[in-house]
Amino acid sequence: MSPAPYRVHRLIQDLNRDPRLVDTFMRDPEAVFQVYGITENERQLLRDGAPRALMTLGVHPNLQMKFLRIRASGGGGPSPLESYLRDLEQG
Amino acid sequence: MGAITGAFAMSHVVFEPEKCPDKAARVWAGMREIARRIQALDPDLLVIATNDHLNNFTLALQAPFIVGVADEYTPLGDMGIPKVPFPGSRAFADAFVRFAAAAGFDVARAEEIAPDHGFAFPNLVVNPGGRIPVLPFYINVANDIPPTPARVWALGGVLRDFIARERAAAERVVVLGAGGLSHWLCEPEQGRVNEVFDRMVIDKIVSGRGRELASLTSEDIRRDAGRSGLEVMHWIFAAATVPHARGEEIFYESMPEWITGMGGLALTP
Questions:
Q1: Mode of pairing for the β-strands spanning B260-268 and B3-10
Q2: Domain extent for A26
């Protein structure tokens, strides 16, 4: 599987770092796609957003995780570490 | 001369225990046991070899080896990890980078790192309250072209030599390789765990044959442990700092429920 073009990875990396870009993306993804030069084929796969579509596009696994999380919750969500962090707090 | 008084390796994250409570409990107990052993050694410095998950070091600039040289670090806070600062060691880090350069390794220096779970979670587990200063040592296995196991092994030896030759006699250092084991995160094989590979890695390291892992290629590891399984490089690094040491497996669980093999070991220098 070929890696996705860097423009796709750059978009997701920026989404991961910029909450304002996430807000814009959630409101108007097409405008953000345009800024990053995302092609129509790439847009279709990103609009789909399913793991299989992201793999087909060749998105880096770490960036797939970030894109899935951003799409699902705008970047937030519960922590899978919750019970362990409580345990550590208790010593 | 300083001394490496302990070397350990373990996975660098856990997940919700509900899907597999018994396995999760054994994994967590194993991690807490490694924490207990590290704290009992009372080191002056803790080296944690791990990887960033494209949070600090993105695909924009892909350096193979990066050392944190800051006086203090604040976690990124991913996965809900508290953003509580903990101390680094600029003097140790800078001296190591200079030593490594003379030994043929041009290691990148990083002033600004907000460690993600790859560093922050194991540090939180084994170094509660951040009492032990740390050296964040990043092996950039997220790169499209990662460093080879042979280079990772050699650089572990450079750290060993640096501590032995350059550090004060009373300085005690513990090394923890954090990550792995096999997992195919966001790949078509996601959910697969290669217990045979994972146990091979553990067995070679605890029997003092970690050097044999240096003959693997990155492609070998990707094939047998998944792209994310390249985190086993951190275990190879830790083993290389105490190359003839033997040790013991602390825990291993094949956990398709968490889409990964989870393990931990301790080496006695």
A1: antiparallel
A2: 6-89
- For residue B59, give the nearest of A13, A55, A88 by CB distance: A13
Q: Is residue A49 part of a domain?
A: yes
User: pLDDT digits over B199-236, tens only?
Assistant: 999 999 999 999 999 999 999 999 999 999 999 999 99
B16·A80 Cβ contact <8 A: yes
Q: What residue ranges in chain B does DSSP mark as E strands?
A: 3-10, 45-50, 65-68, 72-73, 86-87, 108-110, 134-139, 172-178, 246-255, 260-268
Contact B121 A6 (CB under 8 A): no
Contacts of B14 in chain A (CB under 8 A): 80-81, 84
CATH number of the domain bearing residue B264: 3.40.830.10
- Total count of domains within chain B: 1
Q: Classify residue A1: in a domain, yes or no.
A: no
Q: Do the chains contact at B144 and A3, CB–CB below 8 Å?
A: yes
* Sign of the torsion angle spanned by Cα atoms B153, B156, B162, B163: negative
Q: What domain range includes position B159?
A: 3-268
Domains identified in chain A, total number: 1
ipTM, two decimals: 0.92
Chain A contacts of B122, Cβ < 8 Å? Answer: none
> Does any domain span residue A33?
yes
Is A36 within the bounds of a domain? yes
Confidence of residue A59 (pLDDT cuts 50, 70, 90): very high
Q: Which residues of A touch B15 (CB under 8 A)?
A: 80
